């Protein structure tokens, strides 16, 4: 029996995250989605760690061991509070991941010292604590490989603690505890791996939904929402860096006649052909979109008025000089403006619309500017 092929989502999962850019985007998304829980979790982790000074006192009594434990646990609480404060969206992802790794390393280091302080106490309670720490390593959104290495370190520390104890348990009990360390490490890894796959699938679905919400399904161009984001980015760059940018609004002349004469299916194919011609004629850096109906828009980064008018003329001749397969010759009118530092989206679009209306009033099949 042949093995069935993987479904499309599973195949995409296997391919997408080999791309370092996609993997980095996922890690950024994972970190951002975890922040509302992660920050209080870090503080709660530090408080819980400090609260164990109570059993420390009951078991170790007053003395140097208790003092050392209190200092270590208080320092760890201070570290978790400091890292929680620094977990802000504006900070680089790698910095935040490194700080979480630091929390994990410090927690494991302090736990190892606590094992040493408790070396004369109940073996089985300490072994359960090791297994609890193995599972807890995966709570923080570190990368899977790093977390697995930490579980191996914890397991090794737990085994060394067993073998060096004066009151070491029997050989069968020791073997049983060690096997539990190994099984707990493997089980935690498998569960974290499966959860990671589920989160990656969730990320792909979120990307897909975001793309759908910003894409015109007929032409494949960004829709009005996607266009406004592109225009806002151009305005922001103009304000921050003084970059020039232009905006072209386009309207297909007398498009209603196409629908009335040939039907809406032909009209849809004309819009698709128009979109493709537009994509072929503009630069890779330009950002076309479907504004709505038979209206289109293009954001042209690093472009002044003269260049934008040249682009509008090139598009005009591309449409008017070559008949469309099913509807014959069609023309379009163009309104051109440049982005100004004090613009918002509505103002820039309004100027381009006024220029487009001027082109229509002057006889269509032309470009006008404002």
Describe this structure in words.
The chain has a 5-stranded mixed beta sheet with strand order 2-3-1-4-5, sandwiched between helices. A hairpin with a 2-residue loop joins strand 2 (287-292) and strand 3 (295-301). It contains 13 helices and 5 strands. 68% of the residues lie in helices and 8% in strands. It starts with 7 loop residues before the first helix and ends with a strand. The radius of gyration is 32 Å and the shape is elongated.
Task: Give the structure's gist in a few sentences.
The chain is built from 13 helices and five strands.
Walk me through the topology.
Layout: H1 8-16, H2 20-51, H3 53-60, H4 64-86, H5 93-117, H6 123-136, H7 144-164, H8 171-213, H9 224-241, E1 245-252, H10 255-262, H11 264-281, E2 287-292, E3 295-301, H12 305-320, E4 332-338, H13 345-361, E5 367-369
Parallel strand pairs: 4-5
Antiparallel strand pairs: 1-3, 1-4, 2-3
């Amino acid at each position: 029996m042949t093995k069935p092929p993987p479904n499309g989502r599973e195949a995409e999962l296997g391919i997408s995250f080999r791309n370092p850019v996609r993997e980095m985007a996922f890690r950024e998304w994972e970190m951002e989605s975890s922040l509302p829980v992660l920050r209080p979790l870090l503080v709660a982790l530090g408080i819980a760690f400090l609260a164990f000074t109570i059993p420390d006192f009951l078991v170790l009594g007053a003395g140097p061991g208790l003092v050392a434990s209190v200092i270590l646990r208080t320092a760890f609480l201070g570290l978790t509070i400091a890292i929680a404060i620094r977990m802000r969206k504006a900070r680089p992802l790698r910095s935040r991941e490194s700080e979480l790794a630091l929390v994990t390393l410090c927690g494991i280091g302090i736990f190892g010292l606590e094992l040493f302080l408790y070396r004369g106490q109940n073996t089985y309670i300490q072994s359960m604590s090791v297994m609890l720490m193995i599972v807890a390593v995966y709570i923080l959104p570190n990368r899977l490989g790093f977390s697995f290495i930490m579980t191996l370190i914890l397991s090794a520390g737990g085994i060394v603690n067993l073998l060096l104890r004066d009151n070491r348990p029997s050989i069968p009990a020791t073997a049983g505890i060690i096997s539990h360390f190994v099984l707990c490490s493997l089980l935690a890894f498998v569960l974290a791996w499966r959860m990671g796959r589920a989160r990656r699938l969730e990320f792909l679905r979120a990307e897909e939904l975001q793309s759908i919400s910003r894409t015109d399904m007929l032409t494949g161009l960004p829709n009005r929402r996607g266009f406004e984001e592109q225009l806002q980015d151009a305005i922001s760059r103009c304000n921050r860096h003084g970059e020039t940018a232009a905006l072209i609004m386009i309207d297909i002349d007398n498009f209603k006649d196409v629908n009335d004469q040939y039907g809406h299916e032909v009209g849809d194919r004309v819009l698709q052909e128009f979109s493709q011609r537009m994509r072929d004629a503009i630069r890779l850096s330009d950002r076309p979109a479907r504004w709505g109906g038979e209206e289109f828009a293009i954001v042209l980064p690093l472009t002044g008025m003269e260049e934008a008018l040249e682009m509008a003329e090139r598009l005009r001749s591309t449409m008017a000089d070559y008949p469309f397969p099913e509807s014959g010759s069609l023309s379009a009118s163009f309104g051109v403006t440049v982005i100004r530092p004090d613009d918002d989206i509505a103002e820039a679009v309004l100027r381009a619309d006024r220029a487009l209306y001027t082109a229509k009033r002057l006889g269509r099949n032309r470009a006008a500017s404002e």
